Amino acid sequence: MQEAFLELVRCERSDVETRARAWLFTVTRNRALDLVRKERPMHPIDLVDRGTAADAQPDPAGAAVRRETLARVEVLLAVLPDTQREVLELKFRHGLSYREIADVTQHSIGHVGWLIHHGIRNLRRRLDPLGVETAGEATA
Known about the structure:
Layout (H helix, E strand, L loop, with lengths): L1 H9 L2 H4 L3 H20 L20 H18 L4 H12 L4 H8 L3 H19 L13
Helix pairs in contact: 1-3, 5-7, 6-7
């Protein structure tokens, strides 16, 4: 709250006077998100193949391939541009919708879609040289 207040004091009154409530909410939210991101521990994607109730005994070879692929994806995520990595993590790790991701990142919904599309495309390009088939691209 103190940082938000200091930011308010630094701004020109005319810039925030008509929208002070929304401005304070946005600045406070962004500062809180910055703090959470800074202090939260990074947890890798759960690489354990738990299967489903219908698939209580997963195929060991298939499970090994999935674990290996997920491990490669985890490594490749680290080299993506920050914006692409962030939206992919929000979408696939945390299950947020495009609208929710847009609210968190302050990007437009269209830009969120673009970042997700290009992030997935970049991951596929980097996985292909490793000999990994991606969904929809398997050969018969």
